[in-house]
Amino acid sequence: MTDDPFVAHRSLLFTVAYEMLGSAADAEDVVQESWLRWADVDQAQVRDPRAYLVRIVTRLALNRLRALARQREDYVGPWLPEPLLTSPDVAVDAELAENVSIAMLTVLETLGPAERAVFVLREVFDTPYDEIAEVVGKTPAAVRQIANRAREHVAARRPRMRVDRAQQQAAVEKFTAAVSTGDVQSLVEVLAPDVVVVADGGGQVAAARKPITGVEKVAAFLARAARVPDLAATTAWFNGTPGARIDIGGAATAVSPVVEDGRITRVYAIRNPNKLGRLDEVAELRR
């Protein structure tokens, strides 16, 4: 145990920043900057260190998100969040696992910066409206309105229903095995008819620059990929949900499927090597 509130809450602060930014590298920068701010504070005068630190991190992340907006507009192909290798223990907190999933972070990218901050603080971390108002510089009444709009926006775009974790893992394991062998029939069985693959290569490596839609096209695409020499596919946990790591000739791809009603409805494939630096280091996420 430690008496330093920053050290005690560091995992929480990283999780807040990562939820805001979808980038572990940017989240780490924000956490580091927040430590510098914290070091300059008369900590004896801080009544609630946890809330104070969350405010610092959220404000810094909000500024960083606004600065990154133009950069992401110019991104080559679809922009997907940076995946984090996590332990299955994260899934014990089902709400946290859902909110840090690649699928949810992708939805959060469709919110404006202030809306995202309000949604993350309220829906993920259950922050009181008056505290959120202080962070985003608005009245509590305005924050409530923003929260309602953001909640409706996210609800219309998030996966339609939660799935049993064992069912999800079984579907992902079947998918991973089918990709390993190029078994088209098994792929067709585990993929939903309207399945969509979204790939992020960032212009750094080969990747589809537009989503691939439909079970036949997706199964054929994945079967072709399986014929590449030296392909190895293994299951892994990314962002609190079952996924797959595919290695081809030393280049990794993090795959995060969305499972609904026992079938995979979306496949997020992150191939940009600049986003894959944490595939061998387990991240600690916390609320």
TrEMBL record:
InterPro entries: ECF_Sigma-70_Domain, NTF2-like_dom_sf, RNA_pol_sigma-70_dom, RNA_pol_sigma-70_ECF, RNA_pol_sigma70_r2, RNA_pol_sigma70_r4_t2, RNA_pol_sigma_r2, RNA_pol_sigma_r3/r4-like. One of its GO terms (biological process) is DNA-templated transcription initiation. Coiled coil: none annotated. Residues 103-153 form the RNA polymerase sigma factor 70 region 4 type domain. Keywords: Sigma factor, Transcription, Transcription regulation. It holds the Pfam family Sigma70_r4_2. Gene3D superfamilies: 1.10.1740.10, 3.10.450.50, Winged helix-like DNA-binding domain superfamily/Winged helix DNA-binding domain (1.10.10.10). The keyword Transcription applies. Residues 8-70 form the RNA polymerase sigma-70 region domain. One of its GO terms (molecular function) is DNA binding. Belongs to the sigma-70 factor family. ECF subfamily. Interacts transiently with the RNA polymerase catalytic core formed by RpoA, RpoB, RpoC and RpoZ (2 alpha, 1 beta, 1 beta' and 1 omega subunit) to form the RNA polymerase holoenzyme that can initiate transcription. This is RNA polymerase sigma-70 factor (ECF subfamily). It comes from Halosaccharopolyspora lacisalsi.
